[in-house]
Amino acid sequence: MNLANPHLKFASQAVAKPYFVFALILFVGQILFGLVMGLQYVVGDFLFPLIPFNVARMVHTNLLIVWLLFGFMGAAYYLIPEEADRELHSPKLALVLFWVFAVAGVLTILGYLLLPYAGLAALTGNDVLPTMGREFLEQPTITKAGIVVVALGFLYNIGMTLLKGRKTAISMVMMTGLIGLAVLFLFSFYNPENLARDKYYWWWVVHLWVEGVWELIMGSMLAFVLIKITGVDREVVEKWLYVIIGMALITGIIGTGHHYFWIGAPGVWLWLGSIFSALEPLPFFAMVLFAWNMTSRRRRQHPNRAASYWAIGTTVTAFLGAGVWGFIHTLAPVNYYTHGTQLTAAHGHLAFYGAYVMIVLTMISYAMPRLRGLGEAPPAAAQRKELWGFWLMTSSMVAITLLLTAAGMVQIWLQRLPADPAAMSFMNTMEQLAVFFWLRLAAGVVFLIGLLCYLLSFRQRGSVALQSATAGA
């Protein structure tokens, strides 16, 4: 037993806490910049020239990626020691890497906000190895190099922990996903002059992250939490996990082709991309069945109800966002009209929230009470606040998705379907969609309120922990 915190199996699991806390801080920043963008959609000069739309979007998307990476790393540092049944190889290395990654991330965001992007590129030596200027990969080359160093140190740390400890399906699936994440990021350094070739390999990072190796990380985290909160036999969970990751890899890798429809790639991708992308909802539907099956077989009623809600919720919402909304516009004959419309934004918002935001919040919800010394679950009052956060965030994200879907349908009708493409210009079309964007902004405010409820639930947990520590003293 860990004497410093008897609720943790191993003392080194405590290094997950700063990763989780910093991830939530960045999550708040991401939502704030999302609201700035939402307002700029309808009030175009809001905060201009202080924060132009392109800068707000860059910060919004980069914060999303970085805080999810912090969440994945924190989850690995908590999960791997328990699965390996031994202490983390080097807790000190984990903390050093945390500060390196955190400082690099903050400096990069400040660079976006305080410097012209071209000036940031010149300052960080982008002319030596040009990698900047691409969507989602806007980070300076020096930041990308720092991410590689952090990833290598991180993989070494958990890899040595697994090498010396017990190997389970959950830990090996997570390790496979994390290695894939690190290897595929190397393609962010490849920036050919030919635009079609650039986009061809750019998707090897972007798509094969979110529709490939990240799904392995998601599946392992979900399996870990479900074992803990249901008490179902590990053998049953592992069988489901293997089936899910098998389908995810087959459909996700070949399904990359749905991004090759209109960039000049061979026409065979119209068929491969359409067929295998149409199959991509299957692993997410299997996750729904998996979660409900484990819940129906449960051998115990875990006191952390909030963690159970997040675990079940992530499977349902991921299936809707990544599966159903992805399928809506993934077939080439349909994508011909929908490509680049608000339907893409609708799919992206619900898919990222359901598949990755919610699984990280699931892990935080399960692990934080133990990390804070509260036991298996926080007090009932804190759980009520957290469940308010769950319902407000989830319902508002569904509303955002429906509004963007409606906006996308109107956009297609006005801009893509007329016989004369000039019948309605892009800007005139956007003006017709203003009502959807105002409502989307209101839903975004509700999402922020839900996130604040989630964070305020930790405040009550902290006060209870302090009272317990005082009583113990």
Protein topology:
Layout: H1 16-42, H2 53-84, H3 91-114, H4 117-123, H5 141-164, H6 169-185, H7 195-230, H8 234-254, H9 268-279, H10 281-296, H11 305-328, H12 332-338, H13 342-371, H14 380-416, H15 426-432, H16 434-472
Helix pairs in contact: 1-2, 1-16, 2-3, 2-5, 2-13, 3-5, 5-6, 6-7, 7-8, 7-10, 7-13, 8-9, 8-10, 10-11, 11-13, 11-14, 13-14, 14-15, 14-16
Description:
By secondary structure, the protein is mostly helical. Helices cover about 75% and strands about 0% of the residues. It is built from 16 helices and no strands. The two termini are about 20 Å apart. Mean pLDDT is about 90; it is low at about 460-473.
> How many strand segments?
0
Task: Summarize the amount of helix as a percent range.
Answer: over 70%
| SSE run | HHHHHHHHHHHHHHHH
| Strand residue percentage | under 5%
Q: C-alpha Rg, in Å?
A: 22 Å
Feature tags:
473 residues, globular, mainly alpha
Concise synopsis of the structure shown:
This protein is mainly alpha-helical.
